[in-house]
């Protein structure tokens, strides 16, 4: 098996560095691209050099671009041939900042990358770790679809919610962490997050409730039986989640990839 080419966009950042290390250590990864900006506090070259010293098979290369550069114009070598593009990017929300303002900033950052992926690696799975995920992911799916591509290739990463839920159950019950599986549905912010604690049947079901394949998301599993409390919470979170999804779709309606 030749292995996969993976790019971590924002690979020199606080989330990007450990994520890049995990990718470099994965035996399925043959080539890893650490992509960041030239203004990053820690240079992408340094991160790639350190990862390249791991006693693993992955070949690691750094790419650093100016903050004003269009990825679709400069990132061809980095993105071409990628099977997976991980995007831990965007700016954190400032105290008192309106969510719509954060969406416009971070959706613009995501759009720059996703537009380049549409040009250089349209078959790649693009995993977005860009807040607000509830709005950014629908926006990018819609833009991807406008460009004639399969939106099942665009996914939001909310694994952190599952990991936290499973750790909380471990701390309360003492059950082995590896035997706990808590699906988390809804969204990835505030009250839109709904852990289904009633479905903890010791790892019989993937916490993500999604099966991936070469085409991206191939199966979205049903929710299964919910407890009365979970049904109540699901009904309560739905309007808020819909509003955040609609905000993303509204962004997509005002934007499109450059020709």
Order of helices and strands: EHEHEHHEHEHEHEEEEH
CATH H-tier superfamily of the largest domain: NAD(P)-binding Rossmann-like Domain
CATH topology of the largest domain: Rossmann fold
User: How would the global form be characterised?
Assistant: globular
β-strand percent reads: 15-25%
Uncertain stretches: 202-208
Average pLDDT for all residues: 88
What is the CATH class of the largest domain? Alpha Beta
CATH architecture annotation of the largest domain: 3-Layer(aba) Sandwich
Task: Give, in spatial order, the strands making up the sheet with the most strands.
Answer: 3-2-1-4-5-6
* Rg computed from alpha carbons, rounded to a whole number of angstroms: 19 Å
Please give the count of helices.
8
Strand-pairing-aware structural class: alpha/beta
- Domain unit count: 2
SS elements, strand count:
10
User: Considering DSSP H and I runs of 4 or more, what fraction of the residues is helical?
Assistant: 40-55%
Distance between the termini: 36 Å
Task: Describe this entry's structure for a reader.
The chain has 259 residues and is α/β, with parallel strands linked by helices. The chain has helices at 16-25, 44-52, 71-74, 76-79, 99-120, 133-146, 159-173, 228-254, and strands spanning 4-9, 29-37, 59-65, 84-87, 125-128, 154-156, 184-186, 193-195, 210-213, 216-220. The strands form three sheets. A six-stranded parallel beta sheet has the order 3-2-1-4-5-6, sandwiched between helices. It has a two-stranded antiparallel ribbon with strand order 7-8. It has a two-stranded antiparallel ribbon with strand order 9-10. The protein is globular, with a radius of gyration of 19 Å.
